[in-house]
Amino acid sequence: MAKTAVSFFWFRRDLRLDDNVGLYHALKSEFPVIPLFVFDEAILDSLPKDDARVGFIHESLSEINAQLNKLGCSLLIKKGQTLDIWKKLIEEFDVKEVFFNKDYEPFAIQRDEAICQLLETNKSISYSFKDQVLFEEKEITKADGLPYTVYTPYKNKWLEKYHQNLPILEFDSSELFSNFHKSQFAFPSLEQIGFVKNSIKVKPYTFGTLSNYQDTRDFPAVDSTSYLSPHLRFGTVSIRKMIRFAARTNAVFLSELIWREFFMQILYHFPKVVTQNFKSAYDGIQWRNNEEDFKRWCSGTTGYPMVDAGMRQLNETGYMHNRVRMVVASFLCKHLLIQWQWGEAYFAEKLLDYDLSANVGNWQWAAGTGCDAAPYFRVFNPDIQQKKFDEKGIYIRKWILEFDLGYGEPMVDHAMARDRAIATYKAGILK
Predict the structure, then answer these.
(1) Is 349 a catalytic residue?
(2) Which residue from 137, 164, 243, 429 has the least number of CB within 10 angstroms?
(3) Average pLDDT by consecutive 10-residue portion of the chain (431 residues)?
(4) CB 362 within 8 Å of CB 348
């Protein structure tokens, strides 16, 4: 029996039907398009069974599937090793073309190269597209073609190129939806994938407070953040739409979106930063890496209210305010002299908006080991940070219920820890 000739669109970090570059081009194929998502066991097997991010992915896919059902179509959901799944799909269908949006992380690049090689062997054509960034890794470079490693000149070049490329197009696929393959694939429950629901949920994004974002963004009690980051991470919103909105609304908010692209191109050009210092001169630092100290940091029981409130917020909700992230990261690396990789791994486990490039970039920034990082002698004083950004203790009291009942003593003296950190860095930085 002849196999059905089809094209595939492979959803990954782009969980939406609107303004999706790869999907737009897929639906222009001469073959009916099967929309596919793979729950990759290479990723899932390391996650807890109640991982809230998997729940959010499942929920987002369910919404896409409901939209497709109205068209007489459906999502094909698979779970397993990605390469094995593609081998089986090639056996089941006459796969003419495969469309997907690029992913710039080292693991994803290797995975995609293997899949494309398999498809080529099968005489299937693969097409990849830029979708999760406005400018990808080789579009914003210095005059000599080398990547920027300092944010401000990168940002200036980014903005220059942005204005040169206006208007930013939207990829509206709605008139092409008729080219989806007519199907009723069974949509698995979260439990069938091997996971269970978590009470922690991704919040809807909001722009209600962005008009004065630059004035309120450092104050965690104000709660003026957009909650956009998980949606950008999983692609439930289009980065092009968000950049267009930010460009006409708030320059400081736009700069945060540019930071995202800066860290992505750093990860692409310097993949060693996933596990190693960007600045190799810092490889000689002798970290204390005390496990008991790390446990107190993780549980939010350091005796420093701003640090503890941030960690408790993270543990209970999967979120942490950006100003507080800087404080808790600096505390771990400099007050406790625990290397940034420990904190990065903990954030990777807990953050709803976990994104490898931003997480690694920001942790190395806090530790002083990254590109364009905070200088090693800059050691945040958590108490001063609290007085500056949560003077009335509103944020702290929200997350530390026992705060007014006699809060514990700090686990380490700030002045001593600061002096120790500076001395340790000085001694360890290779000349």
Answers:
(1) no
(2) 164
(3) 90 98 98 98 95 98 98 97 98 97 96 98 97 96 95 97 92 95 97 97 84 84 88 97 92 95 97 96 96 98 97 97 96 98 98 97 95 85 96 96 89 97 93 71
(4) no
- 287 flagged as catalytic: yes
342 is catalytic: no
Nearest to residue 235, comparing CAs of 62, 13, 11?
Answer: 13
Distance CA 339, CA 367 (A): 8
Active site residue 259: yes
Is 156 an active-site residue?
no
Phi, psi dihedrals of residue 11, rounded to the nearest 5°: -70, 140
Q: End-to-end CA distance of the chain, in Å?
A: 70
Report the predicted TM-score, pTM, of the whole model to 2 decimal places.
Answer: 0.95
- Catalytic residue (choose from 363, 365, 381, 399): 363
Q: Which of 179, 198, 259, 349 is catalytic?
A: 259
Catalytic residue among 322, 342, 359, 402: 322
User: Is the Cβ–Cβ distance between 396 and 220 less than 8 Å?
Assistant: no
Domains of the chain: 1-130 (3.40.50.620), 274-428 (1.10.579.10)
Amino acid identity, position 307:
V
Judge whether 322 counts as a catalytic residue.
yes
Please name the residues in contact with 252: beta carbons below 8 A apart, sequence gap of 6 or more. Answer: 213, 214, 217
Catalytic residue among 86, 158, 297, 340: 340
Catalytic: which of 41, 179, 287, 315? 287
Within a 13 Å sphere around the CA of 301, how many CA atoms are in the beta-carbon half?
A: 6
